[in-house]
Design brief:
By secondary structure, the chain is α/β, with parallel strands linked by helices. It folds into three domains: 300 residues, no CATH class; 239 residues, 3-Layer(aba) Sandwich (Rossmann fold), CATH 3.40.50.150; 164 residues, DNA Methylase, Chain A, domain 2 (Alpha-Beta Complex). The protein contains 30 helices and twelve strands. A seven-stranded mixed beta sheet has the order 4-3-2-5-6-8-7, sandwiched between helices. Strands 1-9-10 form a three-stranded mixed beta sheet. Strand 3, helix 16 and strand 4 form a beta-alpha-beta unit. The longest helix has 37 residues.
């Protein structure tokens, strides 16, 4: 791929992003700022999957640590590429020069003069972006300084320098370049900023003065100088050139109005991004532009979701309005229910949730929905927003969906709060009546159908009373003009690989149907078409995911298995076709007793109860599991069975995953003594939990590690959402057809009367 072709592709992507409304750009940039670390890793991981060398610029190539806001003196940050877990071996196509897995030949050398010398030796360059991929010149400098000091080298003639390098490296050095390198050493030795031939003890000076000093050296222009400030001198700056500027615009880091080709660095980005993330993010953007520049508008990996240009492409695609029913998702969380409805052909007009990490995940994975229509607020404020009022006034909403927060009614949540406060009462918990706000929103939107998902606690009697919340829900929906009914179901009986008991409420606007009761009953009948006596199991759900040991994986992981995916994964398109996996991070389990439990004491199907009452390892369980007559939390530790559906994926996994231990696949399923490793007996990863919840692998969860678990555990399984959506869509289509026939009959009757 030529440099010109790449820049053309980047410029086209920037032009696409430039079409974004100001509000869309501003909201997207804030999203990137909140998750700049995930963005940097995603960009670098994408590059690590290509058949090209990884970028140079490793932080270990310099010993200087002068950037501001360090927590300790001379603190160094790790190479971001070294923090990306390559589960199937080394990072792709790193030739392993230097001491870091990123393959920078100067990694571990420590002297910033080495990077400067490599830049001089490489000659003039069209911008600073290509500097990240000049491995050969850095390799020559690494060879040159392996057994010579810069003071010794400065005494050589150009011919001696050329001969030394020609004999020890694969490529010959032009005599002109050898002369330029020696000229640079002469300039350095005579400059007032340095003492001898060195750049390690520079005095404190402004960045502009340091740039002016570096541009005195041969082959270094202002773009190169700012790049060296970042990569060789550890300064918190954002170097740029025309390609990097267009790339930053396409991503959404820069406004289109900032496309000034003469500007050599970007103060606004420098001010808004944490110091430690400037280098990895800059390396990451340079990597994807260099390796995929001409195809930047056609990215197929998950990283495309971070680009503003991709969002604008998705939002510009025409929607066949006549074939799209419109939904509003209240209490949307990370978007599981929305995803299920979208895969059925519905269009989301608005999504609301109060949790920012969840709505950030929603925004990233639903790029076709403008940011202004994803509201991070509580339901009361959302109803009074301009976006809500505009959609309500349109009268276009066909279905309102949502799951009001259920923690107050869930068994796990109730136990947890009672343990902390024995005076806690579900009746007094404000979350118990959040459904009232949901119904108030429904009255404003006036949809034809409503769908609500909740925990089984909604149908249970409240504490010592005979009262059930579901009765209030049905009654208040009736007052709002909807006939509603509910169904208790176990998700495993509907083709989802977990035992998850939930309540689904479906309501039909009475004004639209002569027999709304029949419409609701018909929707539940259609839902029952998805019932199965042979539910998928844990093995089906996790098929194709890399099996990792405790403490491995990460926010972004590179690697894939070569094994066959299950029909379940294939049929529901849960697997990704790329080698990047997000959110596949296993806990370390640092407690020795836990490791002994998982590696030695427990077998698939075992719980704390079994360990205490049936094994010699009962001393490892440090809490009271109770007696047979009065058991207490007997499953705080639990190892799953591969051939059974998983237990319920819950938000509590954010605290620990001891009751969701995955046994080693190669010890218990595909038995292989060479591959078996007891360190793979560990808690479920967020990506595995997402698979069990039927989220596809390209659905990226943002936020902290614990937040991933909360988002996943609180979500409606997208596959269940798809089943419900199909049932509602079929009922909508049938009722629409019936209405058309009724109108036709009325017209025909009127014509007959006229005759």
């Amino acid at each position: 791929m030529s440099r010109g072709m790449a820049h053309t592709g980047i410029a086209e992507a920037a032009a696409t992003a430039a079409d974004a409304p100001a509000s869309e750009y501003a909201a997207h940039r804030k999203l990137l700022m909140r998750h700049s670390e995930a963005l940097a890793k995603a960009l670098l991981a994408d590059g690590a999957t290509t058949h090209r060398q990884l970028p140079v610029g490793c932080p270990t190539a310099t010993d200087i640590a002068l950037a501001k806001k360090r927590t300790t003196d001379n603190e160094k940050y790790d190479c971001a590429l070294a923090t990306i877990d390559a589960t199937s071996g080394q990072l792709a196509h790193s030739d392993q020069d230097g001491s870091c897995c990123c393959g920078d030949p100067l990694s571990g050398h420590g002297n910033p003069l080495n990077s400067v010398a490599a830049t001089v030796l490489a000659g003039p360059c069209d911008g600073c972006l290509p500097r990240y991929f000049q491995h050969d010149y850095r390799r020559r400098i690494a060879t040159l300084t392996a057994d010579r000091t810069w003071e010794e080298i400065a005494e050589w003639t150009p011919t001696e320098l050329k001969q030394y390098l020609d004999e020890r490296t694969d490529h010959r050095v032009a005599i002109e370049r050898a002369q330029q390198l020696l000229d640079a050493l002469d300039i350095l030795s005579e400059h007032r900023y340095v003492d001898g031939v060195s750049l390690t003890d520079l005095p404190t000076t402004s960045y502009d003065h340091l740039v002016a000093f570096l541009t005195e050296l041969p082959n270094i222009d202002k773009h190169d100088a700012w790049w060296l400030l970042l990569t060789a001198f550890d300064k918190p700056v954002w170097p740029t050139d025309p390609a990097l500027t267009d790339g930053a615009v396409a991503l959404g880091l820069l406004a289109p109005s900032a496309r000034d080709p003469e500007q050599a660095h970007r103060p606004r980005i420098e001010d808004d991004i944490t110091d430690r993330l400037l280098l990895p993010l800059h390396r990451g953007l340079a990597t994807i532009l260099q390796m995929r520049g001409s195809d930047i508008s056609e990215l197929t990996t998950e990283v495309r979701k971070f680009f503003l240009s991709y969002r604008m492409q998705k939002q510009a695609r025409p929607i066949e309005a006549a074939n799209k029913s419109v939904i509003v998702d209240l209490f949307a969380g990370a978007g599981g229910l929305s995803l299920g409805f979208e895969t059925t052909g519905f269009q989301v007009a608005l999504a609301v949730d109060h949790n920012e990490a969840a709505t950030d995940t929603y925004r990233l994975n639903h790029p076709e929905i403008p940011h202004e229509r994803v509201l991070t607020t509580d339901i009361e404020e959302a109803v009074s927003s301009d976006a809500f009022s505009k959609i309500a006034a349109s009268g276009d909403v066909d279905v309102v969906v949502g799951g009001p927060p259920c923690q107050a009614l869930s068994i796990a949540g109730y136990r947890s709060r009672r343990a902390d406060d024995d005076s806690y009462s579900v009746i007094d918990d404000h979350r118990t009546t959040l459904y009232e706000q949901y119904i108030a929103a429904i009255q404003r939107l006036d949809p034809e159908f409503i769908v609500m998902e909740n925990v089984m606690g909604i149908v249970n009697r409240l504490e010592e009373t005979d009262h059930r919340i579901i009765e209030d829900v049905i009654a208040e929906l009736d007052d709002a003009g909807y006939h509603a009914d509910y169904r208790e179901l176990d998700c495993s009986e509907y083709g989802i690989p977990q035992k998850r008991d939930r309540v689904i409420v479906i309501g039909r606007r009475k004004a639209d149907s002569a027999v709304p009761e029949a419409d609701v009953a018909g929707a539940f009948d259609r839902l029952d078409d998805y019932q199965t006596d042979d539910p998928p199991n844990l093995r089906d759900a996790l098929s194709g995911l890399v099996q990792i040991r405790r403490g491995r994986g990460g926010q972004v992981t590179v690697g894939r298995t070569s094994g066959r995916r299950s029909d379940f994964v294939t049929d529901h398109k849960l697997g990704s076709d790329t080698s990047i996996v997000f959110n596949h991070q296993a806990r370390r389990h640092p407690k020795p007793k836990d490791r002994e439990l998982f590696e030695t004491a427990m077998s698939p199907g075992d719980t704390s109860w079994d360990i205490v009452h049936s094994t010699e390892y009962g001393h490892l369980i440090d809490y009271d599991v109770g007696t047979e007559d009065e058991p207490r939390f007997g499953d705080k530790y639990r190892m799953l069975r591969w051939d059974d559906p998983a237990p319920t994926v819950v938000a509590h996994l954010a605290k620990d995953s001891n009751n969701f231990i995955i046994p080693d696949y190669y010890d218990h399923v595909s038995v292989n003594s060479e591959k078996a490793d007891s360190r793979r007996n560990r808690g479920v990863t967020p990506r595995e939990a997402a698979r069990i919840q039927t989220f596809p692998d390209d659905y990226v969860f943002l936020g902290a590690f614990t937040s991933w678990f909360r988002q996943i555990g609180n979500a409606v399984p997208p596959l269940l959402g798809h089943h419900v959506a199909t049932a509602v869509a079929d009922t909508l289509a049938t009722s629409t057809s019936d209405s058309v026939e009724a109108v036709g009959s009325s017209v025909q009757a009127a014509v007959s009367d006229d005759d």
